[in-house]
Amino acid sequence: TNTGRTQKFGSSTGGHAFSLKSHGEVVKGFTVGFGGHLHFIGCHFGPAVDPPVKSSVAGKTHGDTQHFDDFTSHLDGKTGLQMTEIRVLHDGNLVFGVEGIYSAGGLQISPGVHVGNEMNHSTINQSISLAGGKYVTGISGRHGDVMDNLTITLSDGTSYSFGGSGGHAFHNIVPAGKRVIALGGGLGGHLHNIFCYYQ
Predict the structure, then answer these.
(1) Domains delineated in the chain
(2) Which residue of 22, 94, 119, 131 sits 20 to 30 Å from the alpha carbon of 11, by its own alpha carbon?
(3) Are the beta carbons of 74 and 189 closer than 8 angstroms?
(4) Which residue, among 198, 190, 148, 187, has the nearest Cα to 170 in the 3D structure?
(5) What are the helix and strand counts (H, E) for the chain?
(6) pLDDT reading at 99 higher than 90
Protein backbone atom coordinates (compact mmCIF):
# COMPACT_ATOMS: atom_id res chain seq x y z
CA THR A 1 0.00 0.00 0.00
CA ASN A 2 1.00 3.70 -0.02
CA THR A 3 1.81 3.32 3.69
CA GLY A 4 4.24 0.44 3.10
CA ARG A 5 1.99 -2.40 4.26
CA THR A 6 2.18 -5.75 2.45
CA GLN A 7 -0.41 -8.51 2.73
CA LYS A 8 0.24 -11.93 1.21
CA PHE A 9 -2.62 -14.21 0.18
CA GLY A 10 -2.01 -17.92 -0.34
CA SER A 11 0.93 -19.97 0.90
CA SER A 12 2.26 -21.79 -2.17
CA THR A 13 5.87 -21.29 -3.17
CA GLY A 14 5.28 -22.68 -6.65
CA GLY A 15 5.06 -20.77 -9.90
CA HIS A 16 6.89 -17.64 -10.95
CA ALA A 17 6.97 -14.34 -9.08
CA PHE A 18 5.28 -11.32 -10.67
CA SER A 19 4.67 -7.70 -9.76
CA LEU A 20 2.16 -5.24 -11.24
CA LYS A 21 3.15 -1.58 -10.83
CA SER A 22 2.81 1.77 -12.54
CA HIS A 23 5.11 4.45 -11.13
CA GLY A 24 3.26 7.41 -9.63
CA GLU A 25 -0.17 5.84 -10.03
CA VAL A 26 -2.53 3.80 -7.88
CA VAL A 27 -4.71 0.77 -8.61
CA LYS A 28 -8.18 1.87 -9.72
CA GLY A 29 -9.55 -1.59 -10.54
CA PHE A 30 -8.81 -5.22 -11.41
CA THR A 31 -9.40 -7.57 -14.32
CA VAL A 32 -9.50 -11.25 -13.31
CA GLY A 33 -10.21 -14.64 -14.81
CA PHE A 34 -10.98 -17.76 -12.88
CA GLY A 35 -12.16 -21.35 -13.17
CA GLY A 36 -11.58 -23.61 -10.20
CA HIS A 37 -8.88 -21.14 -9.13
CA LEU A 38 -7.77 -17.64 -10.04
CA HIS A 39 -6.25 -17.98 -13.52
CA PHE A 40 -5.03 -14.42 -14.11
CA ILE A 41 -5.15 -10.94 -12.63
CA GLY A 42 -4.52 -7.52 -14.13
CA CYS A 43 -4.60 -4.01 -12.70
CA HIS A 44 -5.99 -0.74 -14.01
CA PHE A 45 -3.89 2.22 -12.86
CA GLY A 46 -4.67 5.90 -12.57
CA PRO A 47 -3.73 9.09 -10.71
CA ALA A 48 -3.95 8.98 -6.92
CA VAL A 49 -6.68 11.64 -7.08
CA ASP A 50 -8.81 12.71 -9.98
CA PRO A 51 -7.07 15.54 -11.84
CA PRO A 52 -8.65 18.99 -11.55
CA VAL A 53 -11.26 19.79 -14.18
CA LYS A 54 -12.01 23.29 -15.48
CA SER A 55 -15.69 24.27 -15.30
CA SER A 56 -17.74 26.14 -17.85
CA VAL A 57 -17.45 29.95 -17.80
CA ALA A 58 -20.34 32.05 -16.48
CA GLY A 59 -20.52 35.64 -17.70
CA LYS A 60 -19.18 37.54 -20.68
CA THR A 61 -15.83 38.42 -22.21
CA HIS A 62 -15.30 41.94 -23.58
CA GLY A 63 -12.48 43.67 -25.44
CA ASP A 64 -11.01 44.97 -22.18
CA THR A 65 -11.40 41.73 -20.17
CA GLN A 66 -8.25 40.76 -18.27
CA HIS A 67 -8.19 37.04 -17.49
CA PHE A 68 -6.94 35.38 -14.30
CA ASP A 69 -6.51 31.70 -13.44
CA ASP A 70 -5.29 30.82 -9.94
CA PHE A 71 -4.74 27.18 -10.88
CA THR A 72 -2.43 27.64 -13.87
CA SER A 73 -0.62 30.64 -12.35
CA HIS A 74 0.02 29.37 -8.80
CA LEU A 75 -1.42 25.92 -8.00
CA ASP A 76 -0.78 23.46 -10.84
CA GLY A 77 1.39 20.55 -9.67
CA LYS A 78 0.83 21.21 -5.96
CA THR A 79 -0.23 18.29 -3.75
CA GLY A 80 -3.02 18.28 -1.17
CA LEU A 81 -4.64 21.33 -2.76
CA GLN A 82 -7.56 22.87 -0.86
CA MET A 83 -9.37 26.19 -0.90
CA THR A 84 -9.39 27.53 2.66
CA GLU A 85 -11.15 30.88 2.16
CA ILE A 86 -13.06 32.72 -0.55
CA ARG A 87 -13.59 36.50 -0.62
CA VAL A 88 -16.02 38.49 -2.75
CA LEU A 89 -15.85 42.27 -3.31
CA HIS A 90 -19.22 43.87 -4.11
CA ASP A 91 -21.34 46.95 -3.38
CA GLY A 92 -24.74 45.28 -2.99
CA ASN A 93 -25.51 45.78 -6.69
CA LEU A 94 -22.53 44.51 -8.69
CA VAL A 95 -19.56 42.22 -8.08
CA PHE A 96 -16.12 43.80 -8.51
CA GLY A 97 -13.83 40.88 -7.75
CA VAL A 98 -12.94 37.66 -5.96
CA GLU A 99 -10.01 36.20 -4.07
CA GLY A 100 -9.22 32.59 -3.27
CA ILE A 101 -6.90 31.55 -0.45
CA TYR A 102 -5.49 28.03 -0.72
CA SER A 103 -3.34 25.50 1.10
CA ALA A 104 -1.10 22.90 -0.52
CA GLY A 105 1.66 20.78 0.95
CA GLY A 106 1.16 22.46 4.33
CA LEU A 107 1.70 25.97 2.94
CA GLN A 108 -0.78 28.83 2.49
CA ILE A 109 -0.94 30.20 -1.06
CA SER A 110 -2.54 33.54 -1.89
CA PRO A 111 -2.48 34.46 -5.61
CA GLY A 112 -3.90 37.87 -4.67
CA VAL A 113 -7.18 39.69 -5.05
CA HIS A 114 -8.64 39.88 -8.57
CA VAL A 115 -10.66 43.09 -8.67
CA GLY A 116 -11.93 45.54 -11.28
CA ASN A 117 -10.91 49.19 -11.38
CA GLU A 118 -14.36 50.74 -10.86
CA MET A 119 -14.79 50.01 -7.16
CA ASN A 120 -16.64 52.72 -5.24
CA HIS A 121 -16.87 53.84 -1.61
CA SER A 122 -19.72 51.34 -1.06
CA THR A 123 -17.58 48.31 -1.98
CA ILE A 124 -17.14 45.75 0.78
CA ASN A 125 -14.91 42.68 0.96
CA GLN A 126 -16.77 39.73 2.47
CA SER A 127 -15.08 36.46 3.38
CA ILE A 128 -16.21 32.86 3.77
CA SER A 129 -13.89 30.68 5.86
CA LEU A 130 -13.73 27.05 4.78
CA ALA A 131 -12.54 25.71 8.13
CA GLY A 132 -13.63 22.42 9.66
CA GLY A 133 -13.59 20.44 6.44
CA LYS A 134 -16.12 22.65 4.62
CA TYR A 135 -15.69 23.23 0.90
CA VAL A 136 -17.42 25.04 -1.95
CA THR A 137 -19.94 22.91 -3.87
CA GLY A 138 -21.72 25.65 -5.78
CA ILE A 139 -21.03 28.86 -7.71
CA SER A 140 -24.13 30.41 -9.26
CA GLY A 141 -25.53 33.92 -9.60
CA ARG A 142 -26.62 36.57 -12.08
CA HIS A 143 -24.91 38.49 -14.86
CA GLY A 144 -25.56 40.86 -17.73
CA ASP A 145 -22.53 42.53 -19.28
CA VAL A 146 -20.84 42.25 -15.88
CA MET A 147 -21.37 40.04 -12.84
CA ASP A 148 -24.39 41.24 -10.86
CA ASN A 149 -24.42 38.51 -8.22
CA LEU A 150 -22.39 35.57 -6.98
CA THR A 151 -23.95 32.92 -4.78
CA ILE A 152 -21.52 30.55 -3.09
CA THR A 153 -22.86 27.26 -1.67
CA LEU A 154 -20.91 25.15 0.83
CA SER A 155 -20.79 21.43 1.56
CA ASP A 156 -22.90 21.94 4.70
CA GLY A 157 -25.73 23.41 2.58
CA THR A 158 -25.12 27.04 3.56
CA SER A 159 -25.39 29.63 0.75
CA TYR A 160 -24.01 33.18 0.68
CA SER A 161 -25.23 35.77 -1.83
CA PHE A 162 -23.10 38.76 -2.88
CA GLY A 163 -24.14 41.66 -5.11
CA GLY A 164 -27.58 42.54 -6.47
CA SER A 165 -30.55 41.17 -8.38
CA GLY A 166 -29.92 42.50 -11.90
CA GLY A 167 -28.96 40.53 -14.97
CA HIS A 168 -29.93 36.97 -15.84
CA ALA A 169 -29.53 33.94 -13.60
CA PHE A 170 -26.85 31.35 -14.29
CA HIS A 171 -26.90 27.91 -12.73
CA ASN A 172 -24.28 26.18 -10.64
CA ILE A 173 -21.06 25.65 -12.62
CA VAL A 174 -19.87 22.92 -10.19
CA PRO A 175 -21.09 19.38 -10.96
CA ALA A 176 -22.86 17.46 -8.20
CA GLY A 177 -20.49 15.66 -5.85
CA LYS A 178 -17.47 17.84 -6.70
CA ARG A 179 -15.55 20.44 -4.70
CA VAL A 180 -14.03 23.71 -5.90
CA ILE A 181 -10.25 23.83 -5.58
CA ALA A 182 -9.38 27.01 -7.54
CA LEU A 183 -10.90 30.13 -9.09
CA GLY A 184 -10.50 31.85 -12.44
CA GLY A 185 -12.30 34.53 -14.40
CA GLY A 186 -12.12 37.84 -16.20
CA LEU A 187 -12.10 41.47 -15.05
CA GLY A 188 -12.61 44.96 -16.42
CA GLY A 189 -14.18 47.63 -14.27
CA HIS A 190 -16.10 44.81 -12.61
CA LEU A 191 -15.96 41.02 -12.55
CA HIS A 192 -16.93 40.04 -16.12
CA ASN A 193 -16.93 36.26 -15.79
CA ILE A 194 -16.02 33.42 -13.47
CA PHE A 195 -15.04 29.78 -13.68
CA CYS A 196 -13.46 27.29 -11.33
CA TYR A 197 -11.48 24.08 -11.14
CA TYR A 198 -13.07 21.19 -9.30
CA GLN A 199 -12.28 17.64 -8.18
Answers:
(1) 53-198 (2.100.10.30)
(2) 22
(3) no
(4) 148
(5) 1, 16
(6) yes
